[in-house]
Amino acid sequence: MRRAYSVETVRAAEAALMQRLPEGALMQRAAAGLAAACGDLLRRNGRVYGSRVLLLVGSGDNGGDALYAGARLARRGAGVRALLLAPDRAHPGGLAAFRAAGGQVVDGPDGLGVLDLVVDGITGIGGRGGLREDATELVHTVTRDRTPVISVDLPSGVEADTGEVHGEAVRADATVTFGTYKPGLLIDPAAEHAGALRLVDIGLGPELPEPPDLEALQYADVAALLPVPGAESDKYRRGVVGVVAGSERYPGAAVLAVAGALRGGAGAVRYVGPGADAVIARFPEALVHAGPPSKAGRVQAWVVGPGLGDGRQAEAAVADVLAADVPVLVDADGLRLLDAETVRTRTAPTVLTPHAGEAAALLGTAREEVESGRLTAVRELAARYRATVLLKGSTTLIAEARDTPVRVNPTGTAYLATAGSGDVLSGLTGSLLAAGLAPRDAASVGAYLHGLAARHGSDGAPVSAQDVADGIPAAWRDVRAG
């Protein structure tokens, strides 16, 4: 599991560790890891000896890390130059070591020639507000030939704690981070700037508290959560999920939500709505009912909202489902039709699955504000509605109303940006709820499998929502196989 901590927590942990170490030892550990990562990249593209490396050095410890790493590369035969953005505030020890190793300090980008690597050590985890204009111009100049860029701890210009980007920021091919991940490395839009991530162990682990601020599940974590039927399982033990979806205008939403539920391992699916004929034609094993949902029969969880449309009948269906004493997932049109106070006062779990526009409507804010501040938005939604919230997007986030780490899904792909894929996710997550997973786990596993399924369905080509649904069993097998 990838775990991320806030800047304040990281700084406190570093301070505690430095009290037990010789002066400068922590920076040397970071520099050694950074130099190793730079060496690996240079070897993949040619060799370390004789390569041409430029350090962009700011005034903080990140600049010191870059200078010490540059000294190590220079001792291995690389031609390393450093451009100091604040010469009078450059790290003195790092600068002395760099010069002693044969590194060269340059005044500007002119005459540098072709570079093999740029190391971004402009700002660190304490940076705020994007790059200054002079730094932006410099970065554009030295990377205009698509020179690979490695960022030190965090791409300069992004917000470490939130993943927000206010202004210009470095776009790295890789980021070498120290001690622990920072939230901004895992959450868009900042994560888009980070490239491949490499975590360097500097001994910070014992100093970091529980729980982290953010976590991202990996294969082993998801595999441990997957519901696996036993010898005594029947359809009720595997979980029966009710699906209230579709309308005359959007009958396909019903089919896709049911597809997600069945592919997700539900023992049975009870469908309620006007799309019964379409559902049965595609999935004869589905159980259909004219409604209302409360009369449809026994379920362990409900999914309500995809393609439901407007009107009193749709609103009544949402209210009926929210009155049930089982977990309920609300998506799409259901998010517009729900009564907020009803959601807040439910005693059974509720999962809300908005995209950015729906989240903005629930919060009464602009879509752009949600997209630029995804972590803030998902936390606020969970607290305001006292629900588990899965905020869909380029990096899907899952938050609870209680004080648990926000989860970020690492399997997202642009292939999921297709009509109906959210309906599949709703059915899939609903099946996991019906199988007995806790709401945060069901949402996390659902999002993880959903992303893998799109990759299986695409194989490098565009996919439909049905392709995503059909890819779920293969995604499931991948996770089980590790």
Tell me, briefly, the overall form. Answer: elongated
The number of helical elements comes to: 19
How far is it from the N-terminal to the C-terminal residue, by CA? Answer: 13 Å
Radius of gyration over C-alpha positions, nearest whole angstrom = 26 Å
Main sheet? 11 strands, mixed
Percent range for β-strand residues: 15-25%
SS-derived structural category: alpha/beta
Question: What share of residues is helical?
Answer: 40-55%
Average pLDDT level: 94
Per DSSP E runs of 2 or more residues, the count of β-strands stands at 18
Low-confidence parts lasting 5 or more residues at pLDDT below 50?
A: none
**Lateral strand order in the biggest sheet:** 1-9-18-17-16-15-14-13-10-11-12
Notes on the structure:
α8 crosses α9. 54% of the residues are buried. The chain is built from 19 helices and 18 strands. Helix content is 40%, strand content 15%. A hairpin with a 6-residue loop joins β17 and β18. The mean pLDDT is 94. The strands form two sheets. Strands 1-9-18-17-16-15-14-13-10-11-12 form an eleven-stranded mixed sheet, with helices on both faces. The chain has 482 residues and is of the alpha/beta class. It has helices spanning 7-18, 25-44, 61-75, 92-100, 133-142, 219-225, 235-238, 251-263, 276-282, 312-322, 333-337, 340-345, 356-363, 367-372, 374-385, 421-434, 439-458, 465-470, 472-481, and strands spanning 2-4, 52-57, 79-84, 104-106, 117-121, 149-152, 174-178, 196-200, 214-216, 240-244, 268-272, 287-289, 301-304, 328-330, 350-352, 388-391, 397-399, 406-408.
